[in-house]
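Annual report, structural modelling task.

Input specification for the zinc ion complex:
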Amino acid sequence: MTTPPVCDYEGSDYQTSFWDKGGREYEDHTEEIALKRLLPKGGHLLLELGAGAGRNTPRYLGFERIVLLDYSRTQLEQAQERLGKSDKYVFVAADVYRLPFVDGLFDAATMIRVLHHMADAPKALGQIKNVLGSGGVFILEFANKLNLKAIVRYALGRQKWSPFTREPVEFVKLNFDFHPQTVRNWLVERGFTIEKTLTLSHFRVGFLKRIFPTSILVFLDSLFQWTGAFWQLSPSVFIRAKIQKGKQQEILDKLLLLFKCPDCGRSPLVEKGDYLECSNCKKKWGVKDGIYDFREPIVSG
Ligand SMILES: [Zn+2]
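The model returned the following structure:
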């Protein structure tokens, strides 16, 4: 199976160099505030996509169980060290383009500073939609190409790409900034309703961070976050989106948990419209006129 390239943080000291010693206290606090404003108070199961070393995980403790997913094992090992091994956390190394969860499983999902690395963002968003249950909440952060700094640089001729066009810009290999309208369209096309938008890091400017205490910038940013409902000109944008699945889809999601492949035992089977497919032995089990038929697999020809 071919999937888009993945930005792999395997062996990276990202947590230490970028967060712990990188002067990112301001960004970290603004995210803490935004998550408080957007995240449901609690729930059963939350999926944290691109959890990295678990920097944001303690902010999700209202949930009974948290699944931390990252492509890099070493990032997850750092998260284990930080959070401790407990039943509350499930650590999963996997590819966001091929999520290993059954459909309709999660009450909520978060993806912070991760879309930024996605060559095929719509594909990832489709996967996330599948694993959320009906009424599931998705908190998405993305890097905004239409930010004030990019607009000024473009106007002065110091930046080649236009911040106003709708396509993503890959300014460094596997680092993308997105137009807010494009991200909204992707979500809506996949059945999400956008409930809230906050803008963050309005004051991510070197000299401001040197002059003013972090607490003041964080406070000002927390006020400015609400303007995200009207316009988005900051480098970082948070969206809270909700998925409502039809009753039919919800029942189908749950129904798939009932079945396993009668030949090899693999579960769950994958819904393919007029058949269910076994991801292991590739056999196809027919669904015709409302009858699941496990007598003989469909012979494709
Ligand atoms: Zn099978």
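The mean pLDDT is 90.
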